[in-house]
Write a structure and sequence with these properties.
about 425 residues; alpha+beta; Rossmann fold; Dna Ligase, domain 1; D-amino Acid Aminotransferase, Chain A, domain 1; six-stranded antiparallel β-sheet; about 30% helix; about 25% strand; globular
């Protein structure tokens, strides 16, 4: 079997790692692979966003399955192009990917489907957005409607912060086209849980829930990042909660998308806020989350590949489930100094030779090999995932493993899973 992975971050390294376990004899390819992916696959020197070139390459090389990692190619219609060439591909169509690429569309879809979420209003006009902020006050959340690499949501604790956020997005175009439309919504109190569902457009296989840490600072302080770490499972995400999420979130959303002429086949990610008044959706993503994938997949005992192939080939997931290991996983991201703001690249990375084992995996994100040296090439550089019998043991192993990795300016959070620690250890 010949499998192409599009993307080259930590999520894609984790997908490659898992799919190689599922199909050891398969031949793997990846677009511009990072330093950790490169030894595990054959490189394809085409940018992940070059839809035409990739579809042509996949057809010429008789690829049996293509798995799309990042959201940008999905929003650009890469799945539609592959399907037009008769190529099996895992991911949603361009129209279905709007559930992530347009927060305004996603919010209206939820409103129409009766899916619980925050009250919201959408603006393209700065004056209107400012007037709404002054009317509603704070705390409040301001979101760029388009794709903003996980950094387009600003939780504002004061009215001035909120006004600054809308001026930055609509006035200064700080997020470019992604911020020409903004969604302003009520602030929801509670804990957030990430839930992945592999779906055929009607039926879903829900994977083990995870919780990530989006803010740069310990105790969840400071600006949002793409994610500084994650853990799974989450004790709050009980079987009853997952049943509720299926009934109130996934099933009605999939039905609404099909009715809208955009059936969702792929990985639907729901960020769920567990509020005092019940479960509510923070956002949807149209692909595997990062860094949650780095803890969800190491806990998956059954084959991910079988599910992806079934969806890519137009099959049904009715009655299918995923077996999970009865262990815990924690991942700690090692980031470049200055991230999520400006940071330098090209710093040499030292990873101890004895660091990795069967239950401690270093997933590469922003890394590259040059002249035999492993160098930093992004803001989030590595994610160190530990699997252990308990959350506490996994958290300790992940943190200590991450601390052993060295490069100039390396930064990590030492409190990944702090809420879970408080629940389980008191």
């Amino acid at each position: 079997m010949r499998i192409l992975i599009i993307g080259n971050g930590g999520r894609e390294h984790a997908l490659l790692w898992k799919l190689r376990k599922d199909a050891p004899s398969a031949h793997f390819f990846a677009t511009k692979p990072n330093g950790g992916m490169a030894p595990l696959c054959e490189p394809v020197e085409i940018a992940p966003g070059d839809v035409e070139a990739l579809s042509g390459w996949a057809a010429a090389h008789r690829i049996d399955l293509t798995v799309i990692g990042p959201e940008a190619p999905l929003a650009a219609g890469i799945v539609d192009r592959f399907e037009a060439k008769g190529l099996p591909v895992f991911g949603p169509s361009k129209d279905a990917a709007r559930i992530e690429s347009s927060k305004a569309y996603s919010k209206e879809l939820m409103r129409n489907a009766g899916v619980p979420t925050a009250e919201h209003h959408t603006f393209t006009n700065l004056d209107g957005a400012e007037a709404f902020v002054r009317e509603r006050g704070a705390p409040i959340v301001v979101k760029a409607s388009g794709l903003a690499a996980g950094k387009g949501a600003v939780v504002c604790t004061t009215e001035e912060e909120a006004l600054g956020a809308v001026r930055s997005m609509l006035g200064d175009l700080a997020f470019g086209e992604a911020g020409r439309e903004v969604v302003i919504e009520e602030y929801m109190e509670g804990e957030e849980v990430s839930v992945f569902a592999v779906t055929d457009g009607e039926h879903s296989v829900i994977l083990v829930p995870a919780q990530d840490h989006k803010r740069i600072g310990e105790g969840d302080t400071g600006p949002n990042t793409g994610g500084m770490g994650a853990y799974a499972p989450v004790t709050l995400a009980t079987p009853a909660l997952i049943d509720e999420a299926r009934a109130k979130v996934f099933t009605p959303t999939l039905a609404a998308m099909s009715a809208d002429g955009a059936p969702f086949r792929g990985l639907l990610y729901a960020g769920l806020m567990l509020t005092p008044s019940g479960l509510r959706v923070v956002e949807f993503n149209c692909r595997f989350g990062d860094p949650e994938t780095q803890v969800v997949l190491p806990l998956m005992e059954s084959s991910l590949l079988d599910l992806l192939v079934s969806v890519a080939e137009g099959g049904s997931l009715a009655g299918r489930t995923a077996r999970q290991r009865s262990t815990a996983a924690v991942t700690t991201v090692v980031a470049s100094g200055g991230y999520p703001g400006a940071y330098e690249k090209g710093k040499e990375i030292t990873v101890p030779n004895d660091l990795e084992s069967e239950d401690l995996i270093v997933f590469h994100a922003g890394t590259a090999y040059r002249d035999g040296r492993l160098l930093t090439a992004g803001g989030r550089v590595l994610a160190v995932t530990a699997v252990a019998d308990s959350f506490a043991a996994a958290a300790e192993a992940s943190r200590t493993g991450a601390e052993r990795i060295e490069f100039e300016g390396a930064y990590l959070r030492k409190d990944i899973g702090w809420r879970e620690r408080a629940r389980t250890l008191g």
